[in-house]
């Protein structure tokens, strides 16, 4: 089970303003590939923007404090943002979390049709996502 840094996600009340900042100030390009299809009817329909430096993506998501309640998941990835890693074996990674005694929310394909996502907290309460893309 391999992990690679995939994206950093920021939550914002004003996605357009933050997207403009990352485009103009940091000169990050728009992501044109590997963008998950948002499942807007499964609990999160917020505005999204995607930027990249060519290696790692920056995701900007509209903040939604109620997404955990709407989806029934304990971890809300759009409350404060998160860091995300991609794996080639989500089931092995979940077994690894279980063996480590780390509780997680298995979002499956709730938010992204092409990605199986799990979210959990590090010891300081930062949200971490690990996902596997379909076909990986």
TrEMBL record:
It comes from the Bacteria. This is VOC domain-containing protein. Signal peptide: none annotated. Residues 4-133 form the VOC domain.
């Amino acid at each position: 089970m391999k992990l690679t840094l995939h994206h950093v996600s920021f939550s914002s009340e004003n996605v357009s303003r933050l997207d403009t900042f990352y485009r103009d100030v940091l000169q990050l390009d728009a992501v044109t590939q590997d963008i998950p299809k948002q499942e807007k009817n499964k609990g999160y329909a917020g505005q999204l923007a995607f930027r990249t430096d060519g290696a790692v993506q920056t995701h900007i998501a509209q903040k939604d404090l109620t997404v955990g309640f709407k989806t029934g998941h304990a971890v809300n990835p759009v409350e404060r943002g998160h860091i995300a890693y991609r794996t080639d074996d989500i089931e092995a990674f979940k077994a690894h979390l279980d063996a480590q005694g780390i509780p997680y929310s298995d979002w499956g394909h709730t938010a992204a049709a092409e990605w199986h996502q799990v979210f959990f907290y590090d010891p300081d309460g930062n949200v971490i996502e690990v996902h596997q893309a379909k076909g990986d």
